[in-house]
Amino acid sequence: MTKRASYPIGRPGMPWGPAEVSTWLARQTRKRSYEADVASRVEALRPRFDVLQYGRLDYRPDSYPLLAIRSREWRDDLPCVLVTGGVHGYETSGVHGALQFLERHAQDYAGRANLLVAPCISPWAYERIHRWNMHAVDPNRSFRENSPAEESAALMRLVAPLRERVRVHIDLHETTDSDESEFRPALAARDGVPFEPGEIPDGFYLVDDSENAQPAFQQAIIAAVSKVTHIAPADANGQIIGSPVVAPGVIHYPLRKLGLCAGITAAPYRTTTEVYPDSPRATPEQCNAAQVAAVCAAIDYALAHEPVPA
């Protein structure tokens, strides 16, 4: 894979200002339809679930309803499950995996758990197959007070009343070759720092919370996903994306400190999935299925085990 050492916008060592952001924005084009791919499938779920509009992105000339799906038979005595996808719009299996879970498996948990699923948190970025929103802000570093990303702020408002009640939160992501060829070089250029090439792992892995690690929970997910697609090995340094591998297919991040989506609740069981769609060993169907397997395994484990204290 060819690694780009520079980026065509901005000057080396100088963070972007409004002019550079405008130049970057002018390069972004719509490549697929949120309405056709996501909203229409959510609409088809109305006979079985409650559909909520929890916000709207007004990114002129475009406007996007932010949609979530909730168990119709919501009960206060049941544990709550949060599934999120499409925080990074270009990570396709996160969106379609969440929708596929709803279509094929969500009703298996009726009467056992309250489900809340936000399948496409960043619809503008979904249409443009991009990591950032239209302001060149990464929503998945923006889940914090006074968030600069409306995508992140809207989800936090939705989840706030349930924050202490969520038993498990699984956030669905991908790691792609374009991370290294486009998005990390763009990030370095935006922030005015040198681009340091990395290595893209070949396979599925998980990001656990370093502040409340749940190794048995993570390994239950890895075991389920390994039946669908391959698990990413550690690199020559014993790492995945620069972090030490603490168990097969698992690394740690401080979720809340970094403003990551998986840290927005007090859920004792939380994780971020990472699927590798560019692998010659995986198809788009396998990537979606891996996300679904991860969601089901996460819920099954959380319902079967009392939370382990931090």
UniProtKB/TrEMBL annotation:
Tagged with keyword Transmembrane helix: no
Sorted UniProt keywords: Hydrolase, Metal-binding, Zinc
Protein's UniProt name: M14 family metallocarboxypeptidase
InterPro entries: AstE_AspA_cat (IPR055438), Peptidase_M14 (IPR000834)
The keyword Metal-binding is annotated on this UniProt entry: yes
Domain Peptidase M14: 30-310
Family named by the database record: Belongs to the peptidase M14 family.
Cofactor(s) demanded: Zn(2+)
Domain of life according to the entry: Bacteria
